[in-house]
Amino acid sequence: MPLVPTLLATLVLAQATPVPADLAAYFEEIRLAGCTESASDSLEMVAGILVGETVLTFPRDPSGRTYGNYYRSSEDSCPLPGPSSPKPEALRTDRERTKRAVLSRLRVVADTDHSGFVSTIEGSHLRRVYEFGAKAAFLTSQEGKKKADLLDLLHVSESELGSLTTEYRHLAVQLSGLQSLTLPEIPAEWSEATRAEI
Predict the structure, then answer these.
(1) How close are the terminal C-alpha atoms of the chain, in Å?
(2) Is the pTM of this model over 0.85?
(3) Rounded to whole angstroms, how far apart are CA atoms 106 and 83?
(4) Which long-range contacts does 34-39 make (Cβ < 8 Å, 24+ apart)?
(5) Which residue in 198, 179, 175 sits closest to 188, CA to CA?
(6) Distance from C-alpha of 42 to C-alpha of 51, rounded to nearest angstrom
(7) Is 134 exposed, middle or buried (CB count within 10 Å of its CB: 0-12, 13-18, 19+)?
(8) How many Å apart are CA 31 and CA 8, to the nearest integer?
(9) Which of 8, 37, 126, 192 is an S-S bond match for 110, by CB 3.0 to 4.6 Å?
(10) pLDDT (tens digit, 0 to 9) for every residue of the chain, 198 residues total?
(11) Rounded Cα gap, residues 111 and 25, in angstroms
């Protein structure tokens, strides 16, 4: 059977099959949220790191030249059991307010096709860009700025280094107006735009 009639038959059959109510409700929930669950998780992680709710560190593997990503809750976002003092509660309230503002901005930045919806791919890419920049900044402070070493440590090609640096610097600009948020600096000479100007 030719491809086009097969595709048409599949579409007709799909339209004739009713969507289960729970699936329809789930799709509507995702549509109203403006992003997939996975995209939401990615954006929440980046926002949590930016506001200090989550701490991202890069421990060195003692057996080699590899740095991993390690995530943990900050001590003040996960208090010990027992009565809480007003100061940590006020801190959490303020942090939540800041996090909502950060999430709102991250959604705009992540929505690269300007559809009003953040896909799983867009959300995970934004997280990759942020974590790349944070790790690159850390590694330059630990290992220096020698590009060949950093390419190996970051597990990226030279072209990926350029494009991720450009995207990270764009993300830093997009977030620069938010209250007390500053992304760590990485060498500007790595970006595609800077290389193109040389």
Answers:
(1) 55
(2) no
(3) 34
(4) 34/107, 34/116, 34/117, 34/118, 35/107, 35/110, 35/117, 35/118, 35/119, 35/123, 36/118, 36/119, 36/120, 36/123, 38/120, 38/123, 38/124, 39/110, 39/118, 39/119, 39/120, 39/122, 39/123, 39/124
(5) 198
(6) 15
(7) buried
(8) 26
(9) 126
(10) 454 455 455 555 556 678 888 988 888 888 888 999 999 999 999 999 999 899 999 999 887 678 999 999 986 655 555 555 556 677 778 888 889 999 999 999 999 999 999 999 999 999 999 999 999 999 999 888 888 888 988 999 999 999 999 999 999 999 888 876 788 888 888 887 544 443
(11) 23
4 CA to centre of own chain = 39
What ranges do the domains of the chain cover? 40-197
CB 176 within 8 A of CB 166: no
pLDDT in tens, 47-66: 999 998 999 999 998 876 78
- Measured in residues, the chain has a length of 198
Cβ neighbours, 10 Å, residue 123: 26
Nearest Cα to 130, choosing from 96, 174, 97?
A: 174
Residue with tokens 């959490």: 92
> CB–CB of 52/74 below 8 Å?
yes
Q: 89: Cβ–Cβ under 8 A, 6 or more apart, which residues?
A: none
> 53 with 73: CB under 8 angstroms?
yes
